[in-house]
Amino acid sequence: MEVIIAKDADAVAELGAQLVCELLNKKPEAVMGLTTGSTPIALYQKLIQRHQQGEASFRAITTFNLDEYIGMTADNPQSYRSFMNRELFDQIDILKANTHVPSCGLEDNPRAIGAAYERAISVAGGIDLQILGIGSNGHIGFNEPCSSLSSRTRMKILTESTVNDNSRLFSAEEFQPHLAVTMGIASILESRRVTLLATGAHKAEAVRDAIEGPLSARCQASALQMHERATFIIDEAAASCLEYGDYFRWANSENTPIIEKFGNFYELD
Ligand code: F6R
User: Fold this and answer.
1) 236 vs 201: CA distance, rounded Å
2) Candidates 137, 142, 151: which one to mutate for ligand 1, based on the most atoms within 8 Å of Cβ?
3) What is d(CA 22, CA 169) in angstroms, rounded to the nearest whole number?
4) Which of 55, 110, 219, 232 is the 20 to 30 Å CA partner of 137?
């Protein structure tokens, strides 16, 4: 596991953007796994900026988002489809037909939607780089504590803590869904590379449990310990509970000349 502790949220977004652009340079037709939430917005802004400056093209990529609320139509501003259009897709040269969100209407069978989503990822050739955030309860996607670590795309009922965390995004009159379709932990672990971004002290305990805690369904992000190419990019505040924080800082400075000479082991071949 690679743990990069950056100065602040802006530096986290910058490193995330570098990682995405390196992939695009190497593989313009990459398949990317994307996430919503507050954390990736700064990353998406940097990608938009690079696109506007002619430094990045998304024309050939395919994307799969991690999750979507059940019963949220694409035109609902609270849907994750709307979020992605607003925060990224409408501002870059991506082909909308190549962007996927696991949308599931109230009358749709979430089991069938989940299976079809898994098939679509596989037909696209699998995900090259999956971007993740982390919930304060350690969830990735909407894989809530005690979900199976072998889970696939399916319906999940959100925990009270997730509903409370996300209530900041809904006005009093708006309906806040409690059901979602999410890629599973097994689906996420199949990505060739994963990177988790976390910023802020409110994520520090979840980040500690994910990186240093026991591999446990209680902290779903701890499953990333089993991934060969998992990179955590976190700011100082999110790193503040790590026992091995100094080791990770030291390892990164030791690694720099080795990466310059031989490339990064975590990069895709
Ligand atoms: C969103 C998602 C979630 C978020 C997590 C952190 O698509 O999959 O796992 O990444 O809840 O959200 P923020 O970044 O809003 O703290």
Assistant:
1) 8
2) 142
3) 32
4) 110
Beta strands (DSSP E) in 158-210 are 179-182, 193-198
**Alpha helix segments (H runs only) across 151-196:** 160-166, 185-189
Q: Which tens digits make up the pLDDT trace of 112-157?
A: 999 999 999 999 999 999 999 999 999 999 999 999 999 999 999 9
Tens digits of residue pLDDT in 219-251: 999 999 999 999 999 999 999 999 999 999 999
Domain annotation for the chain: domains and CATH numbers: 2-262 (3.40.50.1360)
Token pair belonging to 225: 């310990």
- Give the list of residues 6+ apart from residue 88 with CB closer than 8 angstroms, or none: 34, 44, 47, 48, 94
Q: What is the model's pTM?
A: 0.97
